[in-house]
Amino acid sequence: xxxxxxxxxxxxxxxxxxxxxxxxxxxxxxxxxxxxxxxxxxxxxxxxxxxxxxxxxxxxxxxxxxxxxxxxxxxxxxxxxxxxxxxxxxxxxxxxxxxxxxxxxxxxxxxxxxxxxxxxxxxxxxxxxxxxxxxxxxxxxxxxxxxxxxxxxxxxxxxxxxxxxxxxxxxxxxxxxxxxxxxxxxxxxxxxxxxxxxxxxxxxxxxxxxxxxxxxxxxxxxxxxxxxxxxxxxxxxxxxxxxxxxxxxxxxxxxxxxxxx
Amino acid sequence: xxxxxxxxxxxxxxxxxxxxxxxxxxxxxxxxxxxxxxxxxxxxxxxxxxxxxxxxxxxxxxxxxxxxxxxxxxxxxxxxxxxxxxxxxxxxxxxxxxxxxxxxxxxxxxxxxxxxxxxxxxxxxxxxxxxxxxxxxxxxxxxxxxxxxxxxxxxxxxxxxxxxxxxxxxxxxxxxxxxxxxxxxxxxxxxxxxxxxxxxxxxxxxxxxxxxxxxxxxxxxxxxxxxxxxxxxxxxxxxxxxxxxxxxxxxxxxxxxxx
Lengths: 261, 259
What we know:
The complex is a heterodimer of chains A (261) and B (259). Chain A has 261 residues and is an alpha/beta fold. Helices cover 43% and strands 23% of the residues of chain A. In chain A, the strands form two sheets. In chain A, strands 6-7-8-3-9-10 form a six-stranded mixed beta sheet, with helices on both faces. Chain A has a four-stranded antiparallel beta sheet with strand order 2-1-4-5, with helices on one face. In chain A, helix 4 (111-124) crosses helix 5, helix 5 (141-153) packs parallel to helix 6 and helix 6 (171-188) packs parallel to helix 7 (199-205). With 259 residues, chain B is mainly alpha-helical. Chain B is elongated and about 70 Å long. Chain A binds chain B through residues 48-50, 73-78, 80, 82, 84-86, 88-92, 101-102, 104-106, and chain B through 33-34, 36-37, 44, 123-124, 127-129, 131-132, 134-139.
């Protein structure tokens, strides 16, 4: 479980995060949603330790990481798997080498064991053996995302972070990636936090959702609650498409009918 | 008044740059992680930074050695006081060992290798590959730059030796082709002794230059912010500043060791 308390982050005189408090639960897919520039990526980078918060606390399983020294922070980072928006695969390494890399750095496994484990996770994210020897530039965006997920989980992390994992992907591939992240969360019992502004992802895997606007936490709930939420900012964000507006009308009608009966 | 403020501003900027560079080096020299991966990286860097430059260094040195020998011959043979022909190869050797090979070849490497280092690390920065290393708990400055320093400091002296050898070969071949001096004169000149401290001076220069060539472009690449345009700009700045530092360092080392 990850808990944040009154988290603030400023860049010079611009305050990007304005006192956010919430809890991200273990074994669930926690989603941070909001428009571009709402502070989602900054919040995720504060959690992963890439950015130091200006004030507030970040607790990983009850341990306040803002008080950690360099060594403790490095150790914690070994327990975090991160999927970056652009995949961030190492260009000079093949698919298999990319996935094997965290094992080479942090485990005492033999080359054979490392290869076995890497191949296992690559197969788990539905990649075939033919792709193992290819370089990131030789595979599609969707495959790159899967490799990035495989690299993030190869060390069996306790925490899994993903920054807009389906940006630039078609809806079908996006759904596959979402489902994969959800399945892995349950399988590995990780505390998964996903940044997204994709409503399909929200409706597919949003077990716990926090909505950010202008650096504030505007709303918190789950995928069942978001469609009928009465928060203006959430309505504005969720119902930006006609399809979802229509859906809201149907859902509100159903809700009022069930109340009457 | 405004001019003084501008000078002060530039001075502070320079001090800021030196401070940031020192902090960066501090991170680079922290204990490296993953010995197996580290060894592999060093071998790759030896190829990328050293082996791949052998052809270019040999080609330039061969021709520059020939040109230097011709210039020496022109000067000595046209002098009022008669100068023995074996001084042509001796002077060519001294020029190559003291200045051409360690300094000019290092400047060429600053362009070739420096732009490669700055752009490759800069691209890793803008594509979040460095963030990926950091988030895994890897000391990214050490992981990325230390193998480059080791490879460069180890291989640059070899490149400079190749350059000296090829330069002397160039002088010999042009002598054979033009018959401006005899083979025996050329060999006698090459066998004339040079003071040991001159070789020490060349070696120290080469190692210091190799360190600068590996670290200054890496510093620029590591601190890129933005996209591909900024990567290109940082690569250019890296080459310019590496060359400027090499020239200043050349003067400092020459004054310190030779005077």
